[in-house]
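User: Design a sequence. Structure:
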């Protein structure tokens, strides 16, 4: 749920909201040049609300702004902030509609003894995550969550993020403010970010997705969703950024899930006063376009579903290397409701070409065992030692994530959990629904984990590729401070049972005086490489105090788990004429969208062994289809060329192109942009710094012919009078590139497609840039910037 403010409610107190904006302005001291799809008009409209379009029952919402950030690793680090005041803010609660009943599925202590020796192991490694104050938040709770990728682990809290080496726990970047990613973007995403952060990993594409909600100018509550998709699998690199204005109401508790055709999201919608629940609302964002930074990417929604009497839901989030069936809709699982009690499962089918064909429909109502609600009328719920302050059990919704997995034998599974009252303490109800096609979803197992008198709540659940299951959670009682624990079961264990509870980390303090607000979610995810290792992150306290939380990250695995059989399809996509690498070509496999090529024209898809079909498309260039056979443990190269003359590099010319000159005078820094074409754009920088006059001149050289394959663009701007040049390129084939300024090599850097040159000195001047494969004469076109 939304982050809690640093002084009083940041959503309902204009003074504090303005103070937060100013604080973020102090953090974001470096200006951001425009990205590949940014322009002056888009930046000027960054705070304007676009008009949504209606197609039948579907509302289509365009992003109010999108662009490409500079690499996150180049953003400034501010740690710790100076602000120290803080006060928790009460999040709006879902109306209590449940009718209590006896719990017939509580796992008894007898079952515990029958299972015998615990099968779940102790942590392989655990380490400290982001601590209070969360870089810039000074708030509670942290809303801890995180995800694991090929080599990195990315953790997010209110209001910071940090990237770690996933094996050693060593920090790779951060902690930095979430606002660092939105530096230079403008509008609500840069100036009104309010938390409820979520990070997910798209393992089909090897990309990261982060989001948080934001309050637009003039509003008092979050109404926008800010979503960033990493340009590569490196979370410290550049990000495609999108801002969507989704509602005029209060958008709360947004949670995302990866699916082949879209990034799906559920939100709980309230009136702007936060006093009336209006109902749950599903959204979907165009994944295929967002993977390539396409500014025409849209969001769709079918509006609020069912009204205030409808229970909230979560979208399915894909785990594992086997995607759902072709054309399968995303599956939203709802908190139990009705009489008899059921879990509603909703199917969201999206059509981005013909939005009127999109549907959100009830596909199954699965029987749920009765239970007693935990603390339905109070937040002072879960006891702790050393204080009379209890903790919020947040037992009115499913806990993030709704983990979906398709197995090699063809069956599909979704895992969810929530907190209930069991034998007068908090226990965790967990469930697995399954489907084998043809057929519909049905309950496979459900149970309440409550083995003793300790209170357990705020869980996260997932399974590995063999169906072994793990459940992480917080644990507390009147005799212990909150602890981070987990439990599990082997796929061969008796149904409805968990065993082998382990301690990831034991807090040595309790939380006091934060209006009982504990975290709104934790996060359990699975390593996409071995598909066996579970990563869990949650919060704790080191000393009994208020507003001094800590977070922890750790991983563990079942010894019985082995990695699935898989191989890699290595796509190398080039132009049929000239052989230049083609970036941002969309790759589909077996009829499903998978990923997109990087700046060097490559894309790796991890697939099951056997025969697969593929299609590679670059709009305006061409399409190629084919078949490939994947062998377990091996990489298969797939060379694809597109178009008859599709080179994405500028066409060289032997005569100078017309010079395009523009001048901007403003209270903001002017940002010149120059490329080797006949046009150039000048736009005011998004962050006011000083009055400046800047001129951009496009000047292709006639004396040097660009080598086909490396395409360079550059953007210049001033930071407090100091000259900066953002260089972006594609097509370089070496691991590193040489950067040349005015014919002299100034740097050798990684071939990640982006570099910022900090030009010495001040005042006017012209600088000509070229990027070359390191140690070679294979170079890009030349680009001249004139300040």
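Assistant: Done.
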């Amino acid at each position: 749920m939304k982050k809690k403010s640093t002084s009083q409610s940041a959503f309902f107190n204009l003074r504090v909201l303005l103070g937060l904006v100013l604080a973020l302005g102090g953090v974001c001291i470096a200006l951001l040049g425009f990205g590949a799809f940014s322009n002056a008009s888009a930046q000027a409209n960054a705070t304007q609300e676009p008009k949504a379009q209606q197609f039948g029952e579907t509302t289509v919402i365009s992003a109010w702004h999108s662009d490409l950030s500079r690499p996150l690793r180049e953003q400034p680090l501010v740690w710790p902030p100076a602000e120290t005041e803080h006060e928790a803010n009460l999040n709006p609660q879902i109306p209590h509609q449940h009718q209590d009943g006896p719990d017939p599925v509580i796992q008894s202590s007898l079952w515990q003894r029958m299972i015998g020796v615990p099968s779940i192991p102790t942590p392989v490694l655990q380490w400290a995550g982001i601590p209070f104050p969360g870089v810039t938040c000074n708030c509670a709770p942290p809303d801890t969550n995180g995800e694991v990728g090929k080599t990195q682990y990315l953790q997010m809290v209110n209001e910071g993020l940090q990237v770690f080496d996933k094996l050693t726990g060593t920090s790779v970047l951060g902690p930095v403010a979430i606002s660092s990613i939105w530096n230079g973007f403008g509008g609500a995403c840069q100036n009104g970010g309010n938390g409820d952060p979520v990070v997910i990993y798209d393992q089909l594409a090897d990309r990261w997705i982060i989001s948080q909600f934001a309050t637009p100018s003039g509003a008092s509550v979050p109404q926008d969703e800010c979503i960033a998709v990493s340009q590569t699998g490196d979370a410290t690199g550049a990000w495609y950024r999108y801002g969507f204005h989704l509602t005029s109401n209060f958008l709360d508790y947004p949670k995302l899930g990866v699916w082949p055709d879209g990034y799906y999201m559920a939100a709980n919608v309230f009136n702007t006063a936060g006093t009336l629940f209006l109902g749950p609302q599903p959204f979907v964002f165009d994944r295929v376009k967002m993977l390539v930074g396409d500014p025409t990417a849209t969001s769709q929604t079918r509006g609020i579903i069912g009204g205030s009497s409808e229970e909230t839901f979560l979208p399915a989030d894909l785990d594992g290397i086997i995607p759902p069936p072709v054309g399968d809709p995303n599956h939203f699982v709802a908190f139990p409701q009705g009489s008899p009690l059921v879990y509603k499962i909703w199917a969201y089918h999206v059509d981005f070409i013909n939005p009127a064909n999109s549907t959100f429909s009830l596909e199954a109502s699965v029987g749920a065992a009765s239970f007693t609600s935990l603390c339905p009328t109070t937040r002072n719920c879960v006891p702790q030692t050393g204080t009379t302050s209890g903790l919020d059990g947040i037992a009115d919704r499913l806990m993030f994530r709704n983990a979906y997995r398709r197995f090699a034998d063809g069956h599909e599974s979704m895992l969810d959990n929530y907190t209930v009252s069991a034998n007068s303490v908090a226990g965790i109800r967990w469930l697995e629904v399954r489907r084998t096609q043809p057929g519909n979803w049905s309950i496979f197992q459900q149970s309440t984990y409550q083995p003793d008198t300790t209170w357990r709540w705020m869980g996260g659940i997932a399974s590995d590729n063999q169906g072994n299951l793990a459940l992480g959670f917080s644990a507390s009682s009147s005799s212990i401070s909150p602890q981070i624990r987990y439990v599990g079961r082997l796929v061969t264990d008796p149904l409805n049972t968990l065993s082998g509870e382990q301690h990831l980390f034991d807090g040595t303090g309790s939380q006091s005086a934060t209006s009982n607000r504990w975290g709104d979610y934790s996060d359990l995810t699975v390593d996409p490489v071995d598909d066996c290792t579970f990563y869990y992150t949650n919060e704790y306290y080191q000393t009994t105090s208020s507003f001094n939380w800590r977070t922890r990250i750790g991983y563990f695995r079942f010894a019985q788990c082995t990695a699935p059989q898989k191989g890699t399809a290595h796509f190398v996509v080039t132009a049929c004429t000239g052989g230049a690498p083609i970036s941002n070509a969309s790759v589909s496999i077996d009829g499903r969208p998978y990923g997109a090529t990087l700046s060097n024209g490559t894309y790796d898809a991890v697939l099951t062994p056997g025969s697969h079909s593929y299609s590679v498309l670059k709009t305006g260039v061409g399409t190629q289809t084919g078949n490939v056979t994947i062998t377990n443990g091996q990489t298969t190269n797939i060379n694809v060329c597109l178009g008859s003359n599709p080179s994405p590099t500028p066409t060289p010319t032997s005569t100078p192109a017309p010079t395009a000159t523009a001048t901007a005078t403003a209270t903001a820094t002017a940002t010149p942009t120059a490329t080797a074409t006949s046009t150039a754009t000048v736009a005011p920088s998004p962050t006011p710094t000083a009055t400046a006059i800047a001129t951009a001149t496009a000047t292709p050289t006639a004396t040097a012919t660009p080598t086909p394959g490396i395409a360079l663009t550059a953007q210049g701007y001033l930071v407090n009078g100091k000259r900066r040049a953002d260089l972006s390129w594609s097509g370089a084939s070496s691991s590193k590139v040489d950067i040349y300024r005015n014919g002299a090599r100034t740097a050798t850097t990684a071939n990640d497609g982006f570099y910022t040159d900090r030009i010495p000195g001040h005042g006017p001047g012209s600088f000509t840039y070229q990027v070359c494969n390191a140690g070679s004469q294979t170079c890009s076109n030349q680009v001249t910037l004139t300040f």
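Residues 1-48, 645-707 have pLDDT under 50 and may be disordered. Residues 14-27 form the longest helix (14 residues).
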